[in-house]
Design goal:
Elements lengths: L12 H25 L4 E7 L5 H11 L5 E4 L6 H4 L5 H4 L8 E5 L4 H8 L5 H20 L3 E8 L2 H13 L9 H8 L1 H15 L6 E5 L3 H20 L36 H19 L8 E8 L5 H9 L7 E5 L5 H4 L5 H4 L8 E5 L8 H5 L4 H20 L2 E9 L2 H13 L9 H7 L2 H15 L6 E5 L3 H21 L2
Parallel strand pairs: 1-3, 1-4, 2-3, 4-5, 6-8, 6-9, 7-8, 9-10
């Protein structure tokens, strides 16, 4: 895999000085076209062997193009903040918006490669890290992001030569440290692991480009030309390139009237006395659980979805009423803002993930893609069909990082919804809760019901199951929500 990048590629100064100004001009022109069009974002991953010129290359790209539209990230070792969230969190939150370029310097795969070389992880853990990267990149590509990956390579002999040269010059000696020489002594294993990583993460949508890094002039021209070609190619396409058909099982035709929603007993209720007693009981338990020492090692994500006027807000208020305001955050989800629309779909949810010992409540959530966006036609069928797998993957990443995911669907029937809509229109301080969209959505009740059933079937997993809440009775619903959350937290703490 690295043979052609160990041949000793060299570009003389005359050729470099002749070609560089033209390349620089054309790269800048392509970048400005990208900024003006604002149709897609660009993610550039630059990795490679120590001493191959990764940092110099990033500096050159910032020099050749307009740095105001480039975001450079060099994550390094994970911080305590990073470690409190899933591994991909720090990459999701750093994604560039449409029209911008994000350069990830020595990121995404480098840490896993180093960990495997020094036996901090085994092959299975390495493969898991590589697969996370693959899924991340595919999600970006499916969302229209141009992903470019460059591996800057050095042979063992040239790496040593490079280190010796840098050390001898007082102006550059600081660039070589003990870790660099330590890594050099393990060059053979680094090469072996890197080859495995590149082979497993090079895809048709996001292939690796391997460039010999010893000669700066060759490295800069080669990478610059590859970047220019990719930008031009993508800018020439008026729309997002069509993606392959979604490889998920087809939706099952429904030939009878039975489904998970119609099977609910919506007559369930609590009288006022029982309600007040149970509400106090479960709120008290939730408060005590949130103060337990073990809770500090746990993150909690509570997801609230449901029919319009099903009582999500009331249930959330009974939940937060039992908690210290410093321990939770409520994130209301509406139509995406311009900033959110400029990023891949899941970006706005990744950035709100809680740290250890905290709870985040999503009032509506990432399930909007397979509900309202599906029914209202706000996204293509391929988008919402592939979203089931993306959501399951997202939630699995949370759970693997000791984040408890508790999902509620609050269900009411059409008659109860009508009564609540009319009541909202008549109560002055509730009028803001009812809009024309709410009334229009009632006309699409069967389509929403079908979408909800598909959602439950495809995303109700063993590790992140749905809790369907009979919500015709607000009292019953609020108690069930509290009781379910308490029991799920208790189960999570008992596993420790």
């Amino acid at each position: 895999m690295f043979e052609s990048a160990e041949l000793g590629h060299v570009i003389d100064a005359e050729r470099y000085n002749r070609e560089m100004p033209r390349l620089r001009r054309e790269l800048l022109e392509a970048q400005l076209e990208l900024v003006e069009a604002r149709r897609f974002a660009v993610v550039i991953i630059i990795a490679g062997m120590d001493g191959a010129g990764k940092g110099d290359t990033v500096n050159v790209l910032n020099e050749w193009m307009d740095p105001r539209h480039i975001q450079t990230h060099a994550p390094g070792e994970p911080t305590e903040t990073d470690l409190a969230r899933p591994p991909m969190w720090r990459y999701w939150r750093a994604l560039p918006p449409k029209g911008k370029i994000g350069i990830f310097f020595d990121a995404l795969y480098s840490e896993a490669i180093r960990d495997r070389v020094y036996d901090r992880i085994g092959n299975s853990e390495l493969d898991q890290a590589l697969e996370r990267g693959n899924r991340f990149e595919k999600m970006l590509v499916d969302e229209g992001v141009l992903v470019l990956k460059f591996w800057l390579h050095l042979s063992e002999k040239r790496q040593k030569k490079r280190f010796d040269k840098l050390e001898k010059d007082p102006a550059t000696s600081w660039r070589v440290n003990k870790d660099d020489w330590r890594n050099h002594r393990h060059y053979g294993k680094f090469r072996q692991v890197a080859e495995r990583a590149l082979r497993q993460t090079s895809s048709a949508e996001a292939p690796w480009t391997i460039i010999e890094g010893y000669d700066a002039r060759y490295r800069e021209l080669t990478l610059g030309e590859a970047l220019l070609q990719a930008l031009r190619q993508r800018l020439a396409v008026e729309t997002v390139p069509p993606q392959p058909a979604v490889t998920v099982p087809p939706l099952v035709p429904r030939i009878d009237e039975l489904n998970v929603l119609r099977a609910l007993d919506l007559s369930l209720d609590l009288d006022k006395k029982d309600y007040e007693e149970q509400l106090a009981q479960w709120q008290g338990k939730l408060n005590k659980l949130s103060r337990k020492k073990g809770f500090g090692a746990l993150s909690v994500v509570a997801v609230f979805e449901g029919n319009d006027a099903a009582g999500k807000g009331g249930s959330i208020r009974r939940l937060t009423g039992a908690l210290d305001a410093r321990r939770y955050q409520v994130v209301p989800i509406a139509a995406p803002t311009d900033e959110e629309s400029d990023h891949p779909y899941l970006w706005r949810f990744w950035r709100h993930l809680p740290e250890r010992g905290k709870l985040v409540i999503f009032d509506r959530s990432w399930y909007g893609r397979v509900l309202v966006e599906r029914v209202e036609g706000f996204c293509a069928e391929t988008d919402w069909m592939r979203a089931y797998g993306e959501i399951n993957d997202f939630e699995e990443q949370l759970i693997r990082n000791r984040t408890l995911v508790v999902k509620f669907w609050l269900a009411i029937d059409q008659d109860e919804q009508f009564r609540r809509f009319k009541a909202r229109e008549e109560i002055p301080f509730k009028k803001f809760k009812i809009t024309g969209d709410d009334w229009r959505n009632r006309e699409k009740w069967p389509r929403y019901e079908e979408a909800v059933c598909d959602m439950v079937e495809r995303t109700g997993t063993e590790i992140a199951p749905w809790t369907l809440v009979e919500a015709n009775s607000k009292r019953y619903a609020r108690v069930k929500v509290l009781k379910t959350l308490v029991e799920r937290i208790e189960q999570a703490l008992d596993k420790d």
